[in-house]
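Postdoc handover notes: sequence design on the structure in folder B. Input tokens:
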């Protein structure tokens, strides 16, 4: 199973509390229902991916908080103009499609010449309607979101919106600077230069 980075039970609970408080602070109609629904899923204990970023228990919630902090930093530095409730909803819920999505699966792997049964995170998608699309569907079954919020969540993966396995993702996993130049290019072209 996931080696390396791990969260303590205490951190997992702190992250849950942080996310619930932020979501409820938006005061958006229906948010209590969404928070209750989230609490009944594995959202706070699921990994963020099977073997890429934060593939550990609690990784999905931590990733959501990390994206919230990154997006909030862009607002604070004046790069984008977003209301706090929009930052909270889009960042913390952009990957809500991954709730009840991952499961531990047994696989046979050849390790040092011997076939062994090992446990890995795998995908069991019970609502295969896409990635950003699915997050929007789940969110909108409880609360209303604006067209801008819809677009932010729907397209948060960028050009290859439905693929975690595209060449870009593979290159970025190998060379993190690929991701850095991609986001810098996007921010420059669509945000900084659009004001020039
Ligand atoms: Fe994400
Ligand atoms: Fe995503």
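Designed sequence:
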């Amino acid at each position: 199973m996931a080696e390396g980075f791990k969260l303590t039970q205490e951190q997992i609970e702190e992250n849950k509390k942080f996310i619930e408080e932020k979501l409820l602070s938006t005061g958006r109609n229906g948010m209590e229902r969404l928070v209750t629904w989230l609490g009944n899923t594995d959202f706070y204990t699921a990994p963020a991916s099977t073997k890429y970023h934060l593939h550990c228990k609690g990784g999905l919630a931590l990733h959501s908080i990390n994206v919230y902090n990154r997006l909030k930093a862009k607002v604070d530095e004046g790069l984008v103009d977003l209301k706090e409730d929009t930052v909270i909803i889009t960042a913390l819920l952009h990957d809500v499609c991954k709730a009840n999505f991952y499961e531990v699966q047994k696989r046979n792997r050849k390790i040092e010449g011997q076939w062994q049964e090992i446990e890995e995170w795998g995908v069991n998608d019970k609502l295969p309607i896409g990635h950003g699309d699915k997050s929007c569907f789940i969110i909108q079954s409880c609360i209303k979101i604006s067209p801008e919020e819809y677009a932010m969540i729907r397209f948060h993966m960028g050009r290859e919106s439905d693929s975690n396995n595209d060449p870009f993702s593979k290159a970025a996993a190998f060379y993190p600077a690929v991701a850095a130049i991609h986001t810098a290019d996007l921010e420059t072209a669509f945000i900084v230069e659009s004001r020039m």
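Context for whoever picks this up: The chain has eight helices and two strands. Don't rerun without checking with the PI first.
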